[in-house]
Every structure is written in structure tokens, then in C-alpha cells.
Design a protein that fits this description.
With about 280 residues, the protein is mainly α. The chain has one domain. About 70% of the residues lie in helices and about 0% in strands. It contains twelve helices and no strands. Helix 2 (about 40-65) packs antiparallel against helix 4. It is globular and about 65 Å long.
Length: about 280
């Protein structure tokens, strides 16, 4: 898949989104073993994980519905199989934004003692520096939220919601990248996911990093160029990633993944084995 062909394909979006969240979610599940499930830190970690995982899972469903005009959502297109790793997050239990805002008021208080990083340009080409950039965003948002935490009134509790939601996303993204860093030293395909995950995040929040003087204009151009190459590299690793999830030919042959979607859909509908 050449770097200049436009937006990344569905499999690449799946890899950088679902793989990262699967690794993060598995880490949370592992930490729950033997934990006191009523402990505040445990509860907050689960709330954060839900806020990080569920919106991505639901967006995957929405994208598939839009692409297929809602045809064959859970039968011919096997969307449920794609989301199997996230199915526990797709529940009617509460609203993710509510959970995220509540959990991150607690998190912001917990991290309040850590000073925000000093302004200074980082090198987005360095994987270690990318993690530093993620960490800098987390702690900066924590510091910016503190004035609202010092006021108990409803007005302050409402005013902090945007910062709280930003902190939920920033903290979980940092934790996910840390896990990808650790596993990436052993598996080349995880390293490929790590690079796309980190660079796409920095690209998404480029304006924030510029205004906080953590990146310069030239760095943004570098990030975009590196992201294109990272996507190319990730595309080469997709077979190994798909094998790791155990997707069979029936799932991978779903029309929603085809570049010629109408033809693939017609073929699936006329397949005698499906009648």
C-alpha cells in the first residue's frame, strides 16, 4: 500500500486502534486478578479503560454501517467477530463520557503533585521522545485542571469536564503507548503498531503541541512524513496481526473489507453456501 494513496485502509485503522486497545485492555484485566474490586484505584482504572475502548469499538460499528448502508451488519459482514476483543466494553452501562469525567477528576487530584514538564522541543523521530510527548500532554492537562478542582461548586464541576475528558484520553493513550513500547522490543508487528499509534496521535494533537511549545512547525511536517512510512510498514505486518487474532477466511472475506464493495456484496448474497 503506497504511502501516497490517501487515508489508511480499514485493516490499518483496525490495527492501530483495536490492537493498541486490546493490549491496554488485557493489561487492565490482568491487573484485576487478585485485586480488591471495590478499591478506588481499581474502579477508576476500569472506568478509564471503558472510556478508552468503547468509543473506538462503537465507531468501528458505525463506520461499517455507513460503508455498507447498514446491509448485512452482523451476518455477511461479521462485524461482531471483528469486535470480539472489545465486546465487553460495548454495554448499556452508563455513558463513557460520564465515566471518563468522573474518573479523571479523581486522576487529576492524584497526579496533582507532579509538575508539568517545562517547555522544550522534542524529537518525534525518537520513540522514547514520543512517549515523553505523551507524558507531557498528560501532566500539562492535569495542571490546567487544578483551578477547577479547588472550587467545590457545581459551576467548577461543569467547567472541568472538557479537561477531564481530555485527561482520560491522554492518560490512557500514554499507558497504551508504554505497553506498545514494551511489547515492541520483542515483536516487530507490535513495534509497527506502536509507531502508527504514536505518530497518528501526535498528528491529531499537533495544534496542542505547537501552542504548548513542545513541537515546532517543522516537526509537524516530519510527523506526517513519518506517519506515511509507518503506515506502509504496518501494512506489511497485517498478516501476522490478523493471525494473532485468529480471524478465519470467512471473516476476512467480509464485503465490508473489499475495495470493490458492491461486487463483493453481490457475490456474498449469491453464494449458494449461504442459503
Amino acid at each position: 500500500m503506497p504511502a501516497s494513496t490517501g487515508p489508511p485502509s480499514f485493516p490499518v485503522r483496525w490495527a492501530r486502534g483495536t490492537v493498541a486497545r486490546t493490549i491496554y485492555g488485557n493489561s487492565i484485566k490482568t491487573s484485576l486478578a487478585g485485586s480488591d474490586l471495590t478499591d478506588r484505584d481499581t474502579v477508576v482504572s476500569v472506568m478509564l479503560a471503558k472510556h478508552f475502548i468503547q468509543p473506538h469499538a462503537l465507531q468501528s460499528v458505525t463506520n461499517s454501517r455507513l460503508k455498507m448502508a447498514a446491509q448485512g451488519m452482523f451476518s455477511a459482514n461479521r462485524v461482531a467477530d471483528y469486535l470480539g476483543v472489545c465486546h465487553a466494553a460495548i454495554t448499556g452501562e452508563g455513558d463513557c463520557h460520564v465515566l471518563g469525567s468522573v474518573a479523571d477528576r479523581v486522576l487529576a487530584k492524584h497526579l496533582a503533585g507532579k509538575p508539568a514538564p517545562e517547555a522544550g522541543v522534542h524529537d518525534p523521530a525518537d520513540p522514547g521522545d514520543r512517549l515523553n510527548l505523551f507524558h507531557a500532554r498528560t501532566l500539562t492537562i492535569v495542571q490546567e485542571a487544578q483551578p477547577y478542582l479547588e472550587t467545590p461548586g457545581l459551576e467548577a464541576r461543569l467547567a472541568i469536564i472538557p479537561d477531564a475528558l481530555a485527561l482520560a484520553e491522554a492518560y490512557c493513550a500514554e499507558e497504551a503507548l508504554q505497553l506498545l513500547q514494551e511489547h515492541g522490543t520483542e515483536y516487530a508487528e507490535i513495534a509497527a503498531v506502536r509507531d502508527v499509534f504514536a505518530l497518528s496521535y501526535l498528528d491529531q494533537h499537533a495544534t496542542w503541541y505547537l501552542t504548548h511549545r513542545l513541537l515546532e512547525i517543522d516537526d509537524i511536517a516530519t510527523i506526517k512524513q513519518q506517519l506515511r512510512h509507518a503506515i506502509d510498514n504496518l501494512a506489511q505486518c497485517l498478516p501476522q496481526l490478523l493471525d494473532a487474532f485468529g480471524f478465519d477466511d470467512e471473516i476476512l472475506g467480509a464485503p465490508v473489507l473489499s475495495e470493490d464493495l458492491p461486487t463483493a456484496w453481490e457475490s456474498r448474497c449469491n453464494d449458494p453456501q449461504r442459503h
